[in-house]
């Protein structure tokens, strides 16, 4: 199977997973919100929001294991692949322990006056915080196994485990409706239990399936040079990811301190909506990342940058086709989904989706930076810029600006980070900024204009409770047509046409 077909098949598998898990997750959120109520749901999102963000942590940190495994797969060096895995697992066991220790120390200070939590719910909040720390640990040590699966481009097992995880969380939501014990504690305990089950599904499968997934290296002398290289790579990846999590959770804490727990319900829902829709981007990147890394390992930087540009453009298109119409129909969609929509949720969802769309402009360049390997300066610069959102948000809230200005600053910071990524890759990898604009940014202008104008016209001239059933399909269809006509380069059209022909031929055979 050639690389293009493998990427296409893996992308299809992951998108099928996404369609299944997104629908179940949206329903689960509604059940949990109704079972816990706005206050407890806000408290849970405040305390456990870091776990929600661990999808970024897993993806980013897995890239270190996957990057080195992909390289040594190219050289057919099995002993080195085994060394990479065992040293990576040891490293992540240490990282997991350090992160949990850090969380517990931070919790001591947070629960002694820093957070605005009703006194009656303080004990329950502390309890679920400890269980969330355990969840964090298992989410960290599963990373090397995730990296093995990505390196082998085995997206089918990843998809199956994600579906199982989603179904287990649905089961938890249904249990909340019938238990008489403190629902917030039950939710925290059972959610932590799911992380252990998921770890076992990944670990047992990888250890049985792949020869390079071996625990032998844990019992013998460590490769100090390799461990140092893995530590540096994973450490700076962790720094960058923690900056992203720190920005997100820092905003949650600031909102809680100035306004209260109810605003965290709106912020939590907005982040969940963005995270679900962002699976479009994460899915495509997961399918393309091994090829991006292998291209750089083969000294084919031109192909590496071409794939990175394709990742940025297609990730944006795949998110925009859903996110932009949803922004115009956010109020009826949230009402249909949640019934009781917490205050500020509509504005938060719209603005965070816009910020997420901005991030997609250069999302592929994050993978390019990982492939090149010079990530220390990259993570310091980009991570520090993201954290600037916290002092800006503090000033906005301190000056009694409208609460949505916090999320506006969030979007502006994302735009600054995009510009910095372009200049950083130009400096470290020789990226042509002019070429990037002509192949990615310029190609996105006409499709954006078409979907925005079509959604605006429909919502301006049609007034009906189920109007979104018109807005979403019509604007999305026009967008898809415009993307094909104006958004794709000639080589991308050829690739898409060839895949469609092969898929059609296979369906006819069946």
TrEMBL record:
Q: Which one Pfam family would you cite for this protein? A: Polysacc_synt
Give me the segments passing through the membrane: 7-29, 41-59, 89-111, 131-149, 156-178, 184-205, 251-269, 314-338, 350-368, 380-397, 403-424, 445-462, 468-489
Q: Which domain of life is it from?
A: Bacteria
What topology does the record note for this protein and the membrane? Multi-pass membrane protein
A GO CC annotation given for this chain: plasma membrane
Localization of this protein: Cell membrane
Q: Could you tell me the keywords of this UniProt record?
A: Cell membrane, Membrane, Transmembrane, Transmembrane helix
Broad class of where this protein is predominantly found = membrane
Q: Spell out the protein name for this chain.
A: Na+-driven multidrug efflux pump
Instruction: List the source organism.
Output: Olivibacter domesticus (Pseudosphingobacterium domesticum)
